[in-house]
Amino acid sequence: MGYFLSYSKPFYPGWSNEEAAALIRLYDLPVDRTIKALSRGMRIKAALASSLAYRPRLIILDEPFNGLDVLVREQLIESILERTSESTVLLASHDLAEIESFASHVAYLDGGRLQFVEEMAALSDRFREIEVTLQNAADLPRDWPDHWLNPEQASVVIRFTDSRFDPDRSEAEVHRLFSGVRDIAAHHMPLRSIFVALAKAGKSVR
Amino acid sequence: MRLALHIFRKDTRRFWWEITVTLGLLVALAYMDAHRIGFIPGPMEGWLNMLLPAAWAYLVGLVIHGEALVGDRQFWITRPYPWLALLMAKALFLLAFIQVSSFAADAAILAARGFQPMHYLPELLLKQLVLAVALTLPAVALATVTRNLPQFVFAAVVIAVLGLFSMTRVEQFWPWVNVDQVRRAIALLVLTSFAAAIVYFQYSRRWTAASRAIGLTAILIAGTLFAYLPRSYTFAL
Prior knowledge:
The complex is a heterodimer. Chain A is an alpha+beta fold. Chain A is built from eight helices and eight strands, in the order H-H-H-E-H-E-H-E-E-H-E-E-E-H-E-H. In chain A, the strands form three sheets. Chain A has a four-stranded antiparallel beta sheet with strand order 6-7-5-8, sandwiched between helices. In chain A, strands 1-2 form a two-stranded parallel sheet. A two-stranded antiparallel sheet of chain A has the order 3-4. Chain A is elongated. Chain B is an all-alpha fold. Chain B has one domain (2-235). Helices cover 77% and strands 0% of the residues of chain B. Chain B has nine helices and no strands. In chain B, helix 2 (16-35) packs antiparallel against helix 3 (43-65) and helix 5 crosses helix 6. The radius of gyration of chain B is 19 Å and the shape is globular. Classes of the chains: A alpha+beta, B mainly alpha. Chain A binds chain B through residues 3, 7-8, 10-12, and chain B through 2-3, 6, 10, 13, 79-81.
């Protein structure tokens, strides 16, 4: 492990011995053991230590937290965020709940095609699960908007995902399409629910 | 050059056991050769003569597959290896533990038999050239186009068996018939040129499909030339 780090050093002009030593301490890496003998979590830590030690401007991580326990994940995420304030981290993951806590931008790939890339806050702002309660049961309107995804109806309650949510405009649109609206509730959606809604709808949202 | 030496040191550290085994075989063979009475090698020396090239080829496979060139999942390609430094490191390794070692063993045999090695420098260097073009370079080329070590070993065994079988069908091995130098040299020249091209393409671009096609083309051309060139060319020398 120690040899691996010293082997990596000459490849990077920006390598910092102090940073490498700090990462070894932080991750509690066993420098006298071979990489082959390390667990998956330790191997990921070793790979990260050998990458963060040269302060890269771009880090690409492909499913880095798969198979790791929660504590190790938290430790890795914290250390990446602390040490990459001036870097870009591109992280591919299926664990949406996890990336929601720290991602600044989100890109959505479906079938190998990039559907959209957007700031996390903007994405979170424009998606809402809308629940409309009518006074009397009614059919869904024929001119259903494209950006209202996955409509479901149960008696007087209609639910859908608004992919272009705006408090005033969305409410006005509901009133325009439904008569006898008793209540409108807009629920914030976690990233996971947004992606499930998009996958179910099977369409781009731009 | 600094990075090439760095990678070379890593490979030496990593494969020290295999290096020791091949050097041990070489020393044993050189000792038997130097102390042999008569022209014909004994059975043990005969076996070592076959085993040592196989061990060298395996060493080539090991060191090249330390940074395998086929595929896109290898850890090393996530690191900024300059291709020239990597190629130089591998060349340095093979030079040190195959070519120079073999040269030193040949020189030691000559010295043990009372000859001055420096007087036979051209012959010693020519033997190294033959070793490089007949074994080291083709093995390197094969290792660069195979996915892993088992695939390399399998391909090497198949090629060696087919090559030897073809040679026995085409060449006549009789003590009174001189070695078919022209056809052998032409076939080796073709294989060497194409092998060098493969090594260059694999290290600089990692064009595996193209390199494999070049390899197959080389085998076909060399085989065709070897089979169809008139044997009378040798007698013309």
